[in-house]
Amino acid sequence: MYRSKIILSLIASMCVASAASAMEFQVLGSKAASMGGAGIAMSPSSLASYNNPALLAKNPESFTLHIGAGVGVKDTGAGKAAGDLGNLDFSNLTNKDAVNITSADIANLQKARDIIVGMDQKGFALNPTVDFALSFGSFGIGAFVTSDIGANAVIDKSRTSLIWEQNTNGTITYIDLENNLNTVSQAVYQNTSLQYAVMNKSTYLDVVGLAVAEVPLAYGYGFDTDYGSLSVGGALKMMAGQTFYKQVNVDADNSMKNLDQNTQRTTTFGVDLGLAFKPDAVNDLTLALVAKNLNTPKFDIAATAGGGQYELKPMARVGAAYKLNDWLAFALDADMTKNKSVTHYDTQYLGGGVNLDLSVLELNLGLMQNLASNDIAGLIYTAGIATGPSWLHVELSAQMASQTGEIDGTQYPKQATVNLALSSAW
C-alpha cells in the first residue's frame, strides 16, 4: 500500500506538467531519432539518464558508453524569404541613394516588400546536440548539450512605402519611388518608409537562443507488483545555460554569427522523473512516462537584450515499446505537453518506428508528426543504420520533412536532422 501511494504521488506530480509548455522535447540518440523520435520506453541504458532514468533499473549491462552529436534545422518561413531577399540584393538597395535607384530597382523593391510583409512572425531555427553518457548498472551520469537557436521576423507593417532618402550636395530630401518620384516630408518618410523601418530596426530579424549543458546523476529502481514490473527513476542535474540575442537585417546571411554580443550565463539545477512498467500479461511490452525540468529551471537574459529570464517549463512524454522477438521491436512516443521554442514555435510530437536487429547490422525506420497547429513540416520520415559489435557500435540517423521549400529552383525539406554516435556496452 505504501509503495502504491508513492507511485500514485509520482504520477500525479508528473501529470501536472501536461498543462505547461517548454522547449522542444528532444530524445537523444541516433536510434530514437531514426524511430520517429521514440525512445523513452526503449532508450539505450547509457542515455537513460537523459531520456528516462527509470530505464536504468533494468540495465542488462554493467557498463555502457554513448558519444553522439546531431543537428536539426527548421524553416518556418523566414529562411526562404531571407534567401529570396538576398537574390534581389535588398541590402544594397536599402543603402542606395534615391537618385541612383533605377526602374529595375523599383521592380525589385516591390517584390522585396511583398516578401517582407509575408514573412512577419516567421522564422528559422537550428538545434545542435552533443552527448557523452555513461551508465554503471542502475546508475547513470553524463554531459548533454542541447540548443535552441533561431530567428523570427518582426515586420513593421505600418512602414512599407517605397520612400527613399536622397542626398544632393548635403541637402536631404525624401522621394516616393512609386508616385512619380514626388518629394515628401521627413515626417511622412519616418512614419511610412520601408527604408526607414529597415535602417532603424523597426523591421528586423530577432535572433535569440538558449544553449543548455546538463550533467545529471541518475538512478533507477525496479520492483514487482501484482500486475507487473515497475521501475522508477530520477535525475538530479546541474545545468549551465547561456542565452543570447541580437537584431539583424531581414536578409542577413550571417544572422547566426557573432552571437556573443548580448549573452548571459546562468548555473542552476533541474529535476527529472521517469516511470517504466512491464505488465505480466504482455511481458515484452514496456509502457513509460517521463517528466523533465519539474522545478522550472530559469536562465537569465542579458540586460543589453532587455533582461528578464527564460524558463524551461516542465514537459512530459508518454511512450511504449514492444519487442516481438530478438530481432524485431517497435516503439511509439507522444508529447503530453505543447512545448514552445525560444522563437515561439510550438511542437507536440507523435512518432514511432521499427527496429530490425540483424546482429551485425541494425536498420531503423519511422514516422513522426508535429501535432501543434503551426506545423510547417508535415509528415517527417526517419531512418537509421547501425553496425559493429556491442563494444564498438556505430550509429547514423536522419530525419526529413515531407514538406519542402525552394530557393533558386532547389528544393529542400522544411525540417531535417542528422545524428552520428558511437556506443559501447560491456
Task: Summarize the structure in words.
The protein has 426 residues and is α+β, with helices and mostly antiparallel strands. It has two domains: 317 residues, Porin (Beta Barrel); 88 residues, no CATH class. Helix content is 16%, strand content 48%. The protein is built from eight helices and 23 strands. The strands form five sheets. A 14-stranded antiparallel β-barrel has the order 1-2-3-7-8-9-10-13-14-17-18-19-20-23. It has a three-stranded antiparallel sheet with strand order 4-5-6. A hairpin with a 4-residue loop joins strand 13 and strand 14. The longest helix has 16 residues. It is elongated and about 85 Å long. 46% of the residues are buried.
Q: Determine the number of helices (DSSP H or I, runs of at least 4 residues).
A: 8
Instruction: Estimate the helix proportion, in percent.
Output: 10-25%
Note the quaternary state here: single chain
What's the count of strands?
23
> So what's the CATH class of the largest domain?
Mainly Beta
| Domain unit count | 2
Q: How much beta, percentage-wise?
A: over 45%
Task: Supply database-style keywords.
426 residues, alpha+beta, Porin, 2 domains, 8 helices, 23 strands, elongated, disordered N terminus
Annotate the secondary structure layout.
Blueprint: H1 2-15, H2 30-34, H3 48-51, E1 64-75, H4 78-87, H5 90-95, H6 103-118, E2 123-136, E3 139-154, E4 163-168, E5 171-176, E6 182-184, H7 186-192, H8 194-199, E7 204-224, E8 228-248, E9 263-279, E10 285-292, E11 298-300, E12 309-311, E13 315-323, E14 328-335, E15 339-340, E16 346-347, E17 349-357, E18 361-370, E19 380-387, E20 393-401, E21 404-407, E22 410-413, E23 415-425
Antiparallel strand pairs: 1-2, 1-23, 2-3, 3-7, 4-5, 5-6, 7-8, 8-9, 9-10, 10-13, 11-12, 13-14, 14-17, 15-16, 17-18, 18-19, 19-20, 20-23, 21-22
